[in-house]
Amino acid sequence: MNLQKEYQELFFKYLTKKHASEVVLHDTMEALNLRKGATYKRMNGDTALTSAEMVELSKHFGISLDNVFQPEKFISTNHPFWKDEGTTSVDFMDRLSLYMATLMREEESHMIYLANELPIFYYFSHHYIFNFLLAIWNHLHWDDDRLKIVENKEINFKLENFRKDITKYYSSTPITEIWNSNMLSNLYQQILFSISIRAFEDIKYIENLIKDIKALIEQLRQAAFTGSREGNEEGDLKIYLNEFGNYLNVLLYESEDVKAGFIGFDIPQFLITSNEHFFNYSMKWINKIKKRSVLISSDGYQYRELFFLKMETDFKQFEERVEKMVNVYYN
């Protein structure tokens, strides 16, 4: 087999791993403006693809040629929130729904989450926290105006749908999460700073935010106790505790057809890669971390109690600081 045909077959084999053969056929016809016969010849390697055609197809299907031909040397990532030229914001909820749809596919899968901060899925049930984080994120990345934190009731409906979807997924899929006791520290710091710059438009929002965090901690306790996302039934959620420290949020999702890595550097900002070598390396790395962690879900009673004792102590100290700062900046 000549090198041209070998590369071409590898390219289309990669496409058909991502999409059904019929989709690849018809999309290739459309992208290259070819008839069916001419398209088959390219897919079979009988007619050579030009470099321009290969680049056009990689753009059309949203894949990286590095991932196809040199996955062991280069890691290509997709930035789902990269804004188009001239736009001033990105609808996070709409973008997130695309990735939630992946979880809802009827196929066996496994997900593992190494948490520097608490997995964003937990905030779907706590819209004051989610509203707050979204306001911070939009301000840091898109808005030029002064930070204003107000309740956005328009996103509550979408959040409820996300909550139902992720609960369904967690109840039917093996999930592993590796926590640490500082997962909420950044959230606390952001709230305290926002109070100091009077970013909250209504003091009532701060009160509801504190109630939301208290409810969140109770939800985490129930999830760890039962091994279930909702905390009211036995599930297949395994939660480990690792206190050596981790500075990344890494989510690995694996199914029969998909191996994807989500690398978070600023919740809810993240990068996505479908590089299989990166996935396999990351999985080995996280499994080593898991071996050096302790199980706190289900039977891990002693370590679980110590973990939540610290979490409640940290929350009480945070709550007292909030009360003092509100008295200073809002009274």
Tell me what you see in this structure.
- This protein is α/β, with parallel strands linked by helices and 331 residues long.
- It folds into two domains: 61 residues; 238 residues, no CATH class.
- 54% of the residues lie in helices and 11% in strands.
- The protein contains twelve helices and seven strands.
- The chain has a seven-stranded mixed sheet, with helices on both faces.
- Strand 5 and strand 6 form a beta hairpin.
- Helix 2 crosses helix 3, helix 6 runs parallel beside helix 8 and helix 7 crosses helix 10.
- The longest helix has 29 residues.
- The radius of gyration is 23 Å and the shape is elongated.
- The mean pLDDT is 85.
CA-to-CA gap between the ends? 79 Å
Largest sheet: 7 strands, mixed
| Mean residue pLDDT | 85
Helical segment count: 12
Q: Spans with pLDDT under 50 lasting ≥5 residues? A: none
Helices and strands, in N-to-C order? HHHHHHEHHEHHEEEEHEH
Helix content, binned percent: 40-55%
Radius of gyration, in angstroms, nearest whole number? 23 Å
Number of domains: 2
State which percent range the strand residues make up.
5-15%
Strand arrangement across the biggest beta sheet: 6-5-4-1-2-3-7
Shape: elongated
How many β strands by DSSP?
7
Helix/strand class? alpha/beta
